[in-house]
Amino acid sequence: MGSHQEYWHYAGYTVVNILFSREACDRERVIDLWTRNRILPKGVSASERAKQAVLMALDSSGQAVAVNTVYPARLRPDGALLFFYRMFVQPGDRVYGLMRFMTVRAWDVLSQTPMENKPAGVAIVTENRKLQRRGMVAMFEAEGWERVGGDAQGRDVWRKLFIPEKSRDHPGFF
Questions:
Q1: Smallest Cα–Cα separation from 65: which of 48, 88, 40, 97?
Q2: Cis peptide, bond prior to residue 77, ω within 30 of zero
Q3: Within a 10 A sphere around the Cβ of 128, how many other Cβ atoms?
Q4: In 3D, which of 91, 95, 102, 98 has the Cα closest to residue 124?
Q5: Which of 6, 22, 103, 163 could tie 17 with a disulfide, CB 3.0–4.6 Å?
């Protein structure tokens, strides 16, 4: 971990801001996490996806155990440019609150970091069905996320803008 990097502690983990990191060791730790857990889809470049990393969580030995990534894309049907958010926590490190902590911190980092052509906010497509349970829906709402519809696979689509706008009804997305 470079001395210049912002970091936080949560439940025995060190969560490090690696957005725009040029440290090869940061990318290597993230790629190692994905490789150990065999989670990247076939044909996806680990080195390219590692460039999308925002935060990584390290255990006490310095091994990456969780990472979140974002990529810019347009949310249909309104076409708003947003960061689409993904997160992975390896099974043995799925402790209570870590996902929420890292999601909140990633949104904070993205909202506070100056960028050219910055997207308007963050979108989450709930690929994990557990995120559609009543308690998780309440957590998203409590953190200021707005459910804006669902995709063709029935997954919820949430967004949180960096500069809030008046809430409006949204038809299904995708």
A1: 88
A2: yes
A3: 11
A4: 102
A5: 6
Cβ(120)–Cβ(138) under 8 Å? no
Residue 124, both tokens: 């989450």
* Average pLDDT score, the chain: 90
Q: Which helix (H) or strand (E) holds 100?
A: helix 98-112
What per-residue string of b and e applies to 92-113 under the rule 16 or more CB within 10 Å gives b? ebebeebbebbbebbbebbeee
pLDDT at 5: 83
**Residue 16 Cα distances to 57, 109, 113, 135, 170, angstroms:** 6, 11, 15, 27, 35
Name the band, by pLDDT with cuts 50, 70 and 90, for residue 2. Answer: low
The CA-atom distances, in angstroms, between 104 and each of 2, 97, 101, 157, 173 are: 22, 11, 5, 17, 24
Between CA 137 and CA 145 the distance in angstroms is: 9
